[in-house]
Amino acid sequence: MIAALDQAPELDVRTRALPSDIDPLERLPAAAPLAWVREGEGIAAWGEAARITLPPEADAAGTDRFTRAAAALEGVWTRTRVSDEVGLPGTGALAFGSFTFDPRSGGSVLVVPRVVCGRRAGKSWVTTVADRGAEHPADPLDAPVPPAAPVGPLTWRQGALAAEEWERTVAEAVARIRGGALEKAVMARDVVAEAARPIDVRTLLRRLARDYPDCYTFSVAGMVGATPELLLRREGDEVHSVVLAGTRPRGATPEEDARLAHELAASAKDAEEHRLAIESLRRTLAPLSAGVDAPDGPELVRLPNVQHLASPAAARLLPGVSTLRVVAALHPTAAVGGTPTPAAVELIAELEGMDRGRYAGPVGWVDSEGNGEWGIALRCAHVEGARARLFAGCGIVAGSEPAAELAEAEAKLRVMRAALTDPPG
Q1: What value does the mean pLDDT take over residues 304-325?
Q2: What angle do CA 107, 89, 232 make, to 5 degrees?
Q3: Which part of the chain is the Chorismate-utilising enzyme C-terminal domain (predicted)?
Q4: Distance in angstroms (rounded) separating the CA atoms of residues 146 and 168
Q5: Domain membership flag for residue 89
Q6: Which of 139, 250, 326, 334 is the most buried (most CB within 10 A)?
Q7: Number of domains in the chain
Q8: Bridge partner residues of 232 (DSSP)
Q9: pTM, full prediction
Q10: In this structure, is residue 44 part of a structural domain?
């Protein structure tokens, strides 16, 4: 393990193809699992060959944790030998990462795992990471894996703010916005679940991957969730992103579902929220790329619990632009921070009454070739032992109503509430 600027270890990385298909999540041991999967494809990993930790920053707009992380990771890669017979994004040497929302919060981390198993484009593989001169395990996937344990009974309690307090916070944010201090702020709330024994993260991952296959199910250093929001996917010099802003719950009947979808599409408040998010993405990627391709209007994306306005975007990066530099530039998006960003981040710090930690921060992976996938840590919980802290946020603009925003937050919290709840019987 290394701190951000300590001496990097010398590693030997080997990736070999597997003769048969695998489900990466089914191979995970219980201890500190790492994962990034969607629609049955992705990577899952365990063990630690290196850990890069980043200290908090003094500046609310700082990006030093990303810069230092990229430099430290490059130091690891320059001392790493790679043998890769598969040659896909996510093979060879890679690291999982999870960064704080606010630069002033501690806890940003990158982990280079010991074993990675993956599936992509009809191919499955396993990667092992050994210290230089040490033996690689003969077949790490042959080791027996204990079954994932149920969560058991839970005790629920309020987080930083009770529901009524949070509504008053939203009302204050609306007043500030109407007063011209800013255009939008994303206000989040948390709730806490306590189990009788340590929570088996694998149980949550399998439930989330089953119930939300279109989302990116992730686990990095205790942050576990299924995010619908792709911050960026990079392959070579091409990056793709998806902006989600504007939300309604799913209806109990097809008729109610259609009504809510029409309401979302016709909502001036949600259209404004989405416009601000798209404009923010364009401004951010413009100096890093040869141009940004995004649609003129959003499309509707339906998830099991909510429906969103969504816009895909693509760009070709300029030479020499690193993946973590793009991540740093994109974070925080208007969809999780607000507009203008500096004012929104300060308002969040003033009114929310909590430290978000790595909630709404970038989460994902990057390999030694620069390929990677990074999402925003939404619909998630921070799991530590028997405790899970759940988060959800809503975009607040001048037309927001506190009661409606609370209902939206509750709809988003249902994702992790359900993942933590064992089925009856």
Answers
A1: 90
A2: 55
A3: 163-412
A4: 46
A5: yes
A6: 334
A7: 1
A8: 374
A9: 0.91
A10: yes
Q: What is the CATH number of the domain that holds 66?
A: 3.60.120.10
> 193, 391 in Cβ contact below 8 A?
no
404, part of any domain: yes
Decide if 229 is catalytic.
yes
Q: Are strands 80-84 and 11-17 parallel, antiparallel or unpaired?
A: parallel
Percentage helix, strand, coil, to 5, in the chain? 30, 35, 35
The tokens 């509750």 sit on which residue? 410
CA dist 252 and 123 (Å) reads 39
Residues of the domain holding 267: 11-132+151-420
Q: Is residue 140 part of a domain?
A: no
Q: Which of 57, 229, 273, 373 is catalytic?
A: 229
**Model confidence pLDDT, tens digit, residues 237-271:** 999 988 887 888 889 898 998 999 899 989 988 88
Catalytic entry in 57, 184, 352, 405: 184
Distance CA(227)–CA(215), nearest Å, equals: 5
- Dihedral of CA 82/7/105/58: which sign? negative
